[in-house]
Amino acid sequence: MARHIEKRSSKCQSLESPIKFLIEEASRCIQCNEPNCISGCPYGVSIPAMLSFASTGDLERAMSLLSDPRLLDLSRSCLTERPCEKSCTLAKKGKPIPIHQIELSLLMEDKKV
User: Fold this and answer.
1) What domains are there in the chain, each with its CATH number?
2) Which residues neighbour 85 within 8 Å (Cβ) at sequence distance 6 or greater?
3) Residue among 96, 91, 95, 81 at smallest CA distance from 41
4) Residues 6+ apart with CB under 8 A from 56
5) I need a labelling partner for 65 at 20 to 30 A (CA). Which of 13, 71, 111, 113 fits?
6) 13-65 pLDDT tens trace
7) Burial of 13 (0-12, 13-18, 19+ CB in 10 A)
8) Three-class HEC string of 4-60
9) Which of left, alpha, beta for 59 (phi over 0: left; psi -120 to 50: alpha)?
10) Distance of CA 2 to CAs 5, 7, 8, 10, 78, Å?
């Protein structure tokens, strides 16, 4: 059981990630012509647009794309399978964009405001 919690914690990382990390990771998005991350997202988030806004520091506009109320349940959000990250084109190269962590960081920033 402890190993499972430790594994989940390392995947989830800190919910209070620095904005710099959020922007750097969002900047890695290659803005695919046919983004698989959108079809992989169970909430239908326009992930490339969200990452584009986040990469320029426009966190308010990035947050506006996270309108599905199911995304606001932070108590269970680290437990999801992250299908959008599995669908990310960069996952084929071994390092997908940490979409889930970026979404969590945006939601936490929104709660601070």
Assistant:
1) 2-112 (1.10.1060.10)
2) 37, 40, 91, 96, 97, 98, 99, 100
3) 81
4) 23
5) 13
6) 544 446 888 999 999 999 999 999 999 888 888 999 999 999 999 999 999 99
7) middle
8) HHHHHHHHHCCCCCCHHHHHHHHHCCCCCCCCHHHHHCCCCCCHHHHHHHHHCCCHH
9) alpha
10) 5, 9, 10, 12, 16
Token pair of 78 as six digits = 């680290």
Residue range 93-106, pLDDT digits in tens: 999 999 988 988 88
Instruction: Give the C-alpha separation, 21 to 44, whole Å.
Output: 24
